[in-house]
Design a protein that fits this description.
mainly alpha; ND/Mrp_TM; NAD; 493 residues
Length: 493
């Protein structure tokens, strides 16, 4: 624990170095030639992602930076997925950014530093490291939202995101400071030990947990801390919206597990009730508000709120199950849900980016009208994404929802059986607005009848994305087993 162990954080070191290299290379790249920095960014993501997956395969948990960082399979697996998500986002974003004078070094540099913040959060074993990674990620995303400085809507969204994000960070920091004051430690395992041996200041600890959960709920976009999600998703450039809705959700899940499960499991009776309220409110607000939306990005934003509510159900199911194996299965179902949700979100916002063109943002649902006539293949792929979000078999979204519901039912508690039934009912309500998009694509007439053109790399990645949603739905066992292994290793340390 006293060793610096630089080997454990080589991926983060490489990511930091390459972010600086991209910034320097960008000084010598003209406005017409942004390809060197783009390919350098993509190469960095491939190498860093490969390192994380290699560390995951090793299956070893090591500590670094004198115990402030933990390099475990859960962190490496989620970090690898975060690299893949950012890589796919860059592929989708390149033609969109080029047509809006956004394909500049700032886009790549801030994306890499945002990913670095995510990596730091995923491997944090200390309250201060969590907050350091959170601020690095958040500040990069604030700047990315405001990247189009001459666009009033984007600037407004950036201001809202910054102000509310600062408020939520204050909540989280205040809660962590109270936990430190009550336990005398900033290291997560030591906080766990102090709480498990006897609660010295129960009132202070519970008060701190309230602020911690509030801060986490904001980062997840769970109701009633969801106010920023629709406005930021709609106002940000679509490429940046995809950056916000993708990899950061993996980091938010990870710090939820680190703080609540690995650090504050002795206070589970208190934070479990808060997670139940957050999940129920998120499912209701997200699904009901999405029905009234005509803007596709706002609809997907409310869909995000509802999906985060479903993920939180898996977290609460882990607390109900006293059996360690059952608890790890519940947490792994939540992890599986958030990973597959990010996979589907990449495709849905990627399709919005694809339909947009210079001078026109394809943000309205009606912009999808007649897509089946313009491009039957892309309409089929988008249908797969909508079916996955709605939880229609055989897509991966169906199995992800089923895994969470199974975790609730296995608990055997009558309240959680009712909670599972409630989740099914609101999911049926939510299916309406997803199927409405499918109806518009296949049956409504289109004003624009020109064939939908896409660069070869975008077409290839979009096809792979759609295929992954279907393949993981038909054969979910492999990915779910990876999540189980990662969670079991995290709970065992």
């Amino acid at each position: 624990m006293n060793d610096m162990n630089w080997l454990a954080i080589y991926p983060e070191i490489l990511l930091l170095v390459m972010g600086c290299v991209v910034a320097l290379v960008d000084l010598w790249v003209t406005d017409e030639q942004r390809r060197p920095t783009y390919w350098l960014t993509q190469l960095t993501l491939v190498v860093v992602g490969g390192m994380h997956f290699a560390y995951f395969n090793a299956g070893v948990t090591t500590y670094a930076m004198q115990g402030m960082v933990v390099a475990d399979p859960m962190g490496h697996l989620l970090a690898g997925f975060a690299c893949v998500a950012t890589l796919i986002t860059m592929v989708y974003a390149r033609p969109y950014a080029a047509s809006r004078d956004m394909l500049k070094g700032e886009l790549f540099i801030l994306s890499l530093f945002s990913l670095l913040g995510i990596n730091v959060m995923l491997s944090a074993n200390n309250f201060l490291v969590i907050y350091l990674g959170l601020e690095l990620m958040s500040l990069s995303l604030y700047a990315l939202v405001a990247l189009r400085r001459d666009h009033a809507v984007s600037t407004e969204a950036a201001m809202k995101y910054f102000v509310l994000g600062a408020l939520a960070s204050g909540f989280l920091l205040y809660g962590l400071s109270m936990m430190y004051g009550a336990t005398g430690s900033l290291t997560i395992p030591e906080v766990f030990d102090v709480i498990s041996k006897g609660i010295p200041n129960k009132g202070v600890l519970v008060f701190g947990v309230v602020f911690v959960v509030a801060g986490l709920a904001f980062k997840l976009g769970a109701a009633p801390f969801h106010m920023w999600v629709p406005d930021v998703y709609q106002g940000a450039p679509t490429a940046v919206t995809l950056l916000i809705g993708g990899a950061p959700k993996l980091a938010a899940f990870a710090i939820t597990v680190r703080l609540l499960v690995e650090g504050m499991l002795g206070l589970a009776v208190d934070w479990q009730q808060m997670l139940v309220v957050l999940s129920v409110m998120s499912l209701l607000v997200g699904n009901l508000a999405a029905i009234a939306q005509t803007n596709l990005k706002r609809m997907l934003a409310y869909s995000t709120i509802a999906n985060m509510g479903f993920m939180l159900l898996g977290m609460t199911a882990g607390v109900v199950n006293d059996n360690t194996l059952s608890a790890s299965n519940a947490y792994s179902s939540a992890m599986f849900y958030v990973v597959t949700y990010v996979l589907t979100t990449l495709g849905t916002f990627g399709m919005v980016i694809l339909l947009s063109r210079a001078g026109h943002e394809a943000e309205e649902i009606k912009d999808l009208a007649g897509l089946a006539r313009r491009s039957p293949w892309f309409a089929l792929v988008m249908t797969m994404f909508m079916f996955s979000l709605a939880g229609v078999p055989p897509t991966v979204g169906f199995y992800a929802k089923l895994a969470v519901l199974q975790a609730l039912v296995i608990s055997g508690e009558p309240f959680y059986l009712w909670l599972a039934g409630f989740a099914v009912v609101v999911s049926l309500i939510g299916a309406f607005y997803y199927l409405r998009v499918v109806k518009v694509m296949w049956f409504d007439a289109s004003v624009d009848t020109a064939p939908l053109a896409a660069p070869a790399d975008v077409r290839f990645v979009m096809t792979l994305n759609g295929a992954a949603v279907l393949v993981f739905g038909l054969m979910p066992g492999g990915l779910l087993e990876l999540c189980k292994v990662a969670i079991r290793q995290a709970l065992a340390t």
